[in-house]
Design goal:
- By secondary structure, this protein is α/β, with parallel strands linked by helices.
- The protein is 58% helix and 11% strand.
- A 4-stranded mixed beta sheet has the order 5-4-3-9, with helices on one face. Strands 6-8-7 form a 3-stranded antiparallel beta sheet. Strands 1-2 form a two-stranded parallel sheet.
- Mean pLDDT is 77; it is low at 89-100, 152-160 and 212-216.
Length: 279
C-alpha cells in the first residue's frame, strides 16, 4: 500500500524526533524508495501533504487499516487516486483515470470554503469553524477545549459564579434571544439568526454550568470550565450554520464531533481532510 506508506511518511518526516540516523535511516530511505518508484514523485508528494495534516498516531492507524485490508484479500487492490494527485499527474502527463473527490476546509479572506461529498460551500468566518479546522486536521486526537479557546490563566479562589440578580438577567436575555432567532428566521435573515443562536448557546451553557442541583449557585473552578462551555457553544453554532449551507457535511460533523473539556473529530469511517487555516 504505497499511498498509505507515503501518507504515514508525511508526519514522520516533520516529527520532532526526525531525522533518523544510521541503520534506521537506511531502512527509512529504503521504505521511501518503494512508493516513489511505484507511484511517481507527484502522487507521493500529495500523499505526504495529506499525511502531514494528521498526527503520527492517526497516520499509523490509516496505514494499519490499509495493511489489514491488503492481507485480508487474495491480492492487493488498486489504490484509489485523489483529486490532488490527479492534478499533479496531469501536469506530468500521466493523468490517472479515476480521481476521487476533494475533501477540504480552506481559509479564505472573509470566510472559509468547505468541500465534501462532491459539493463545495462558502462558510462564514465563525470562531467555531476555526476550532473545527483544528480538529479536522488532527482526526482522532483529543484537543483540550482550553487550547481551542486560546489558553488562559486558571482562575484563583472559587466563589459563586452568579448571584440572583445576574441569574435573572441571564434568563431575560435568553428569552430575548429566543424571540430574536424566531424573528430572524421569519425574515429569512440567517446571519442575524446564527449570531443570536451562537450567543444563546453560550448563555445557556454558562447558566447551566453556574447552577448546581436545585438551582443552587455552583462555585467557580477554573478557566477550563469556561473554555469548555465557550468552545462547545462555538462548535454547535458552526455545525448548525454548516448544515444550513451544506446539509451532508453538517450531518457528518454532527455525528463525528466530540465536545466537552476535550474535543475531537471521530468519524465512523476515516476521511482524509485537506485543511488550510491561513488565508
Amino acid at each position: 500500500q504505497h499511498r498509505a506508506a507515503a501518507e504515514l511518511d508525511g508526519p514522520v518526516a516533520v516529527h520532532p524526533a526526525a531525522p533518523s540516523f544510521g541503520a534506521a535511516a537506511d531502512r527509512l530511505a529504503d521504505a521511501r524508495a518503494h512508493p516513489a518508484a511505484r507511484l511517481g514523485a507527484g502522487p507521493v508528494a500529495a500523499a505526504q501533504r495529506r499525511g502531514r495534516a494528521r498526527s503520527v498516531d492517526a497516520a499509523l492507524a490509516a496505514a494499519r487499516t490499509a495493511l489489514a485490508a491488503t492481507l485480508g484479500d487474495a491480492g492487493p487492490a488498486a489504490e484509489p487516486v485523489t483529486a490532488e494527485e490527479a492534478g499533479t499527474a496531469e501536469e506530468a502527463g500521466t493523468a490517472p483515470s479515476v480521481p476521487t473527490p476533494d475533501v477540504s476546509l480552506v481559509r479564505e479572506p472573509g470566510g472559509w470554503t468547505a468541500t465534501y461529498a462532491g459539493r463545495t460551500a462558502r462558510l462564514p468566518d465563525l470562531k467555531g469553524i476555526g476550532d473545527l479546522a483544528v480538529l479536522l486536521a488532527r482526526p482522532g486526537v483529543e484537543v483540550p477545549a482550553l487550547e481551542l479557546a486560546g489558553g488562559g490563566v486558571v482562575a484563583g479562589a472559587p466563589g459563586p459564579v452568579i448571584d440572583d440578580q445576574a441569574r435573572r438577567a441571564y434568563q431575560r436575555r435568553i428569552l430575548e434571544l429566543q424571540q430574536e432567532v424566531e424573528e430572524a428566521r421569519g425574515d429569512h435573515d440567517p446571519r442575524r439568526a446564527d449570531g443570536a443562536e451562537e450567543e444563546l448557546d453560550a448563555l445557556i451553557d454558562q447558566l447551566g454550568s453556574a447552577l448546581g442541583l436545585g438551582g443552587r449557585d455552583r462555585a467557580t473552578g477554573s478557566s477550563h470550565e469556561r473554555a469548555r462551555s465557550t468552545v462547545t457553544a462555538r462548535l454547535r453554532a458552526a455545525v448548525r450554520r454548516i448544515e444550513a449551507l451544506h446539509p451532508e457535511l453538517g450531518r457528518h460533523l454532527g455525528h463525528a464531533l466530540q465536545t466537552g473539556s476535550w474535543c475531537a473529530y471521530r468519524p465512523e469511517q476515516e476521511v482524509a481532510w485537506r485543511v488550510t487555516a491561513d488565508a
